[in-house]
Amino acid sequence: MTRQIIRTDRAPAAIGPYSQAVRVGRTVYLSGQIPLDPQTMELVAGEIEVQTRRVFDNLQAVAEAAGGGLADLVKLNVFLTDLGHFARVNQVMGEYFQEPYPARAAIGVAALPRGAAIEMDGILELAD
Length: 128
Description:
It is a single chain. The chain contains two helices and six strands; from the N terminus they run βββαβαββ. It is 23% helix and 29% strand. Strand 4 (73-80), helix 2 (86-96) and strand 5 form a beta-alpha-beta unit.
């Protein structure tokens, strides 16, 4: 199958040798998003809830550029430098998703790019 590279200005530009997402058939592999503002390419300031919303907004923008949305997400990986934030991240996730929820993993990590507190990636399965 042919790989289609997905790119949008509504999400942060890749800060390395990778694509925002790659679509193969109906499956879209979303690269990790940290809470970067796509206009300034700076980390958003604020509590973990603000950062989490920025990450979901970035993922949503890339998902839409691929022809889908967060409702098409089948797998979500959440990386946190402090697992103590998990309940607050979970609360924000409830603002963005309705049942059926995607499969999810939450992983504690020592550090993330640019000193971010959270990063997420995922896999979409599109209907077409």
